[in-house]
Amino acid sequence: MKTIDIMIVGAGAAGLMAAIHASREGASVVVLEHMDMPGKKLRMTGNGKCNFTNSTLLHTVDLQGDSFFHGACPAFVLPVFTKFSAKQTVQFFEELSILPSERYGGLYPSSGQAVTILNVLLMECDRLGVEIRYNIGIRDIYKSKNEFVFDTKSGEFRAKKCILATGGKSYKKTGSDGSGFLYVERLGHHIQHLVPALVPLQSDLAFFKKVAGIRAEISAKIAVNQRMIDHSRGELQLTDYGLSGICIFQLSYVASRALLSGEQVTVHIDFCPGASEEEMVHRLCTIAKSEYSMKKTIQDIVTAFFPDKLGTALLEQSVCVKATMPAAMLTESTAEGLVREWKNFVVPITGTRGFDQAQITAGGVDTNEIANETLESKLIPGLYFAGEMIDIDAICGGYNLQWAWSSGAVAGKSAAGSIKA
């Protein structure tokens, strides 16, 4: 095969975006993919509906807000978003016939199917003459003089520029197996520790065996060594192993990094986020002293606040009252203690559910070694990075895909522009 302009490794969201923008700049582009089809992880995004960006990013004034992103240097995203913003992303997909539909801030294709996004990307690659090769097992990537050499089981490929967009380690069955980081390390780059993010959290409390399957609207805080780090609010999914649900996913990056360092992690759950302690105490005492509660127990009146299994389990954990205690005997001070337990239920975290259940990977190529306006390596001229490979991850809601689109577009344009220069 002759030497092409740009070789992209990985046919996921970032890789396809890089291919399109590089080709639009006039570069010859080939994409190498080790799976038998493109965009396997993209097809699963947003439960198969593809939350491809977030409307919040259309309106923020601080260059799209690095507060949504994590990593050793979250502000690394800002120059990238300046060059390719969420507004440009929406325009890009509208030009490819995608009509966005907003739901709770997330922007989805009106079709309601993630495969729609993938299909328009592939059609645009086809229109531009981008070649995508599947089932390519790469043994090594190295630079020889002014070319990158790709030693694969299907033969040798050569390119003037290389864009690595192989993804992280989450959902291995989709192709994100972390193999791309092996090439990066051989090329001399450093990798910030890879940990699961947007992932359920594990705890060894017996409490969870009793409440598995219950969902509840809560607010939560996460602490490392008793110091509060972050907070979230939303639906909690209680499982036999611990905590799941979007509000927990938003906090999981803290847990993953802290557990890796051997630090103590706790999640503090407020099971009554819609009311203050004072309001809850007043409600509880009012119900307990009502004439209709004269023959009721504490457990009977707790059903007014929680699903049966959850209320029962919380009472079993209580050090303030017994479930069988007559409601009429509830004092204000006892009610205060009970409410404090409900609004600060402490869960010791023993681990995460790992990369197999993580939506994304936190960590990646050290951003100190990447030029933040071009995404070109500072160590290896002509080598570029995009997407989840870089030490940037984000909260749920389309933010991670926005990073894939923006970093892919910038890497593709930059690589093609350096050839023309």
What can be said about this structure in brief?
This protein has helices at residues 13-24, 40-44, 56-59, 77-83, 86-95, 114-128, 180-186, 207-211, 246-260, 277-289, 298-302, 308-317, 332-343, 399-420, and strands at residues 4-9, 29-32, 53-54, 69-70, 100-103, 106-109, 131-133, 138-144, 147-152, 155-164, 191-197, 201-202, 215-224, 227-238, 242-244, 265-270, 345-349, 351-352, 360-365, 383-385, 393-394. By secondary structure, it is α+β, with helices and mostly antiparallel strands.
Detailed description of the structure:
It is a single chain. This protein has 421 residues and is an alpha+beta fold. The chain is 34% helix and 25% strand. Strands 1, 2, 7, 8, 9, 10 and 20 form a seven-stranded mixed β-sheet that branches. Strand 5 (100-103) and strand 6 (106-109) form a beta hairpin. The longest helix has 22 residues, at 399-420.
